[in-house]
## 1
Amino acid sequence: MKMLIIHGPNLNLLGHRKPEIYGNQTLDQLNQKIKNHFPELELEFFQSNHEGELIDKIHQAMEVFDGIVLNAGALTHYSYSLRDAIEACHIPVVEVHLSNIAGREGFRRESVISEVCLGTISGFGVTSYLLGVQALKEHLKH
Ligand code: DQA
């Protein structure tokens, strides 16, 4: 089973950016934790601060991966082009967030991508990613 884990804008700053909200772990540590947790999966990790690069990666993923776990960062809240890419890609995408976006500033409470994702996991820090990968794995088994 091949999965792509995508991190959007500013997630390269994990561990330094608002640790009280996003935690102390760096992106490398987070990726390593996911790898250690799922040794049976073929995982690839991708981070970009650029909307177009994220869209290109989703297009390419169609041919290569069984599914995607995506933390789109702030693009979650306004990127219709990312939404369209997810809808067009025909492989399941699980939306994840470290923080509970439903309990934060008003603009974060809306996700324009949720509707085209398989499901959303939000608010559990690094565990959101682990739950996202687990949920996608179960989905792909059936
Ligand atoms: C985030 C929540 C977004 O609102 C924010 O812009 C991020 C991270 C999260 O993981 O909690 O960059 O997606």
## 2
Amino acid sequence: MKKILVIGAGGQIGTELVLLLESKFGKDAVWASDIKEECPKALKESNYTALNVLDNEKLSSIVKEKGITDIYLLAALLSATAEKDPKFAWKLNMDGLFNVLELAKEGHIKKVFWPSSIAVFGPTTPKTNTPQHTIMEPSTVYGISKQAGEQWCAWYHEKYGVDVRSIRYPGLISYSTLPGGGTTDYAVDIFYHAKHNGEYTSFVNEETTLPMMYMDDAVRATVELMEAPESKIKIRSSYNLGGISFTPEDLKEEIQKQIPSFKISYAPDFRQKIADSWPASINDESAQNDWGWKHEYDLKKLVSVMLENVDTKQMFDK
Ligand code: AKB
């Protein structure tokens, strides 16, 4: 019987992934975990256990006690935070992965999902329609950890037959949980500010084109990849996923269709350099051909869902 453990479930992806997994496989099949003792509000109806993925003993005993078959490992430091604490970022992003891959190698779990990112690409990568296989010289700590992690996933698969699957997520946009520590976070923050006081100061400049994706598409891709027959999974490092590419100006114009007085100004900070090192658009033909990936949300749909649903209290009433 399938028993899923989501590690880092309190984060932006985790909260929505847990709900999708529960709706697909039933509440009893899913355990959410995060570093906090107290269950995050968004998961109060879910099975929850506190877990620091670096605590290998606890991880191992949870897996054995609960008969876990599949792990989705989402605990990580993102690009902006990782630049400020490189050693801890490396430790969390790599040791967490090793702990889980070792459990799979020893046969305690059947399947692993581990997220990679467009951050594996760097300034020397072709910027538009970035191919699945191309130059990868990441210039951030986060990108280096994701690039190394991808190679470790491929190695554990090749050497020990570990069934590990991965996606290179673009920037992810959602309203149920605030993102934290990423470079693409501007494209979430902007909606809270637009609704709160009708203006936003962006930390990346007006020309910054980045690939983004609405969270429903991202979690659907994750589960579709994990549930695809093993024979369809041809890439064991990580799959490119494209989504939609836009600049802050494109986003402003779409928001102005609903809030005509909305204003944006620009004050680029250290995250500009990170954004400039990443692709502007991604080619995801391998995901389309191998396991039938197709994204649904365009910019118009994304903006209307976000403006309808962001709860400004989440960001401003703390
Ligand atoms: C970040 O900005 O660090 C993340 C990512 C693209 O992986 N959203």
## 3
Amino acid sequence: MNKKFSVVIAGGGSTYTPEIILMLLDNIDKLPLRCIKLYDNDEDRQNKLAKACEILVKEKDPSIAFIATTDPAVAYTDVDFCLAHIRVGKLAMREKDEKISLKHGVVGQETCGPGGIAYGMRSIAGVLENIDYMEKYSPDCWMLNYSNPASIVAEATRRLRPHARIINICDMPIGLENSYAQILGKRDRKELDIRYFGLNHFGWYTSIKDKEGNELLPKLIQHQLQFGNCPEHIEDGNYTDASWRDTAMKVKDLVKLDPTTTPNSYLQYYLYGDDMVAHADPNYTRANQVMDGREKRVFGECERIAKAGTAKGTSLQIGIHANFIVDLATALAFNTHERMLLIVENNGAIENFDKDAMVEIPCIVGKDGYEPLSIGKIPTFQKGLMEQQVAVEKLVVDAWIEHSYLKLWQALTLSKTVPSANVAKELLDDLIDANKGYWPELK
Ligand code: NAD
Ligand code: G6P
Ligand code: MN
């Protein structure tokens, strides 16, 4: 088959766009392309990256058409895949989410706790709007969505666009499995066969085997009790920055709670929220680090490329983590039956858990979409935590649909990161103020 595919990147102005383009270009033998489009609703921001992206494409393969647009009709007409990574409110609103939470002594995080709830209330409309464009202009297109907060977005699309061709996915398991592979002396995460269950940014590995079928989880956990997800010699770790190194190290404490599974490191925000708050600087949060770090670096390099008229010698790197996007698109395009962790409706896969909860579990992906694998029963500790968190996510979507102040207060109160209904109410009132124009008006 010599079909070539057309791809639109929604959220074209994202800091991740150049590395995703490089990753697509590095894989054109697997997923042949005829067109790459960037789409954003912020023209100025997207323009800061677009010229450099065009140069990257043209220098690799001039036969691939390149378009950057803010017109949904242009963006979504004749596309096979939409790679969606929008951030409604951009990093400026992420900063507010994090700082307002910390002001109330609560975890200030992009996708967890009040920050994730506030971000969810902003994201739903943006993602639905993009689904609607896709369905209007390219009804056979698949949206591979990794816009956050993925759990809340997934629950909203399950309810409000039940037939949409959207697949919600997260790169965190890829990052975790890469570190497990390194710790276990493997070259690649694909040398490991894993079992995992949970919610997005809220799950556990129950098995990690080599290709001969030997169980490696006990060995991994022994290592984690001493070094977390860091290699024995920390300098061998491939950390984008200190905050990710600290997260990898904190796994040391997380594994103590259940030494028969190994957790997604995002659980640190729920299980050690007090440590996270104590460790945070309420005046300089992760959003500030990203704006001063990744954003400056990526936009600066794109400006340099555009001025130079060439990407030769660029410091931009292929998004290695982002490989899962090509794996997923290839599985849909070529029916590869790749086994991947996706965020899907439970529907009995986890036997003793809500049928209509959006869970993160292994699925087999082929040309008709995905088929979840059966997980069986999960233990009481994980089940209890997940039930509480799923209820939070469902209440956020209820609040968005019904414009309900009460439901959002309940969501915040129920979040494991928030100590009481009093604190939840104070947080809610501050978040409403900060999110004017982004949230529906709550009654
Ligand atoms: P960013 O702010 O740099 O870029 C996001 C872009 O989205 C901006 O250019 C913004 O203008 C655009 N945008 C906002 N609303 C839009 C809309 N309605 N339609 C079209 N474009 C819109 O953000 P970033 O730091 O690069 O992150 C991008 C997104 O990817 C975030 O949601 C982030 O959480 C997510 N992400 C997810 C994963 C995952 O594992 N699921 C991994 C990495 C990043
Ligand atoms: C991981 C998660 C994403 C999240 C990102 C934040 O990749 O899977 O969901 O958006 O981390 O990283 P940052 O560097 O922006 O804090
Ligand atoms: Mn994620």
## 4
Amino acid sequence: MRKIIVATENKGKVKEIKEILAGLEVEVQTMGEAGINIEIEENGKNFVENAIIKAEAISKLVDALVIADDSGLEIDYLNKEPGVYSARYLGKDTSYEVKNQIILDRLNGVPKEKRTARFACAMALAEKGTETVTTYGTIEGYIGDHAEGENGFGYDPIFFVDELGTSTANISLEAKNEISHRAKALRDMLEQIRERLDR
Ligand code: IMP
């Protein structure tokens, strides 16, 4: 069976991605499972550049398809911060409970219409000797006035979506995979992945 390596060790992301790729005749491995242990400097200007940097760095080391995503939260009131710095924002070892509380404090008193935000995700598919392709997905929402929910990861507890009436931490993985930025980018990539697998 062919292999796809997912260029992340983030358990939340891996779970979401494995679920979406579950229908394909392919073994999905994380970098760790594939025995790859390299530090990649994510020094791109935006999500797309970072996704390409990650996917291409790993595809040079393996004979497999590699998908990498780069994603993050853009809060309009904070000039689209944390953006590409989402994982490193307020210190990479700071817990999300603390990060989320700091963001809530920064937005204290800001009316709902100015609390708009989105999760964005760029996905890159790379393989030695072929051209790298990318897709992009977003989900629009707003920063709530409190944290809510136990599911998901990262900024999910403070990211609310009107249609859900709650945060993306308060819905199931299946429900998040219907609507998430990563799911949209990955679904748009599915056809290309299928094509590569058939080659
Ligand atoms: P990356 O691993 O460089 O793509 O960084 C992504 C960071 O953005 C994560 O560590 C989270 O902080 C945030 N993020 C991306 N997608 C989500 C999501 O679906 N929920 C919550 N936080 C997210």
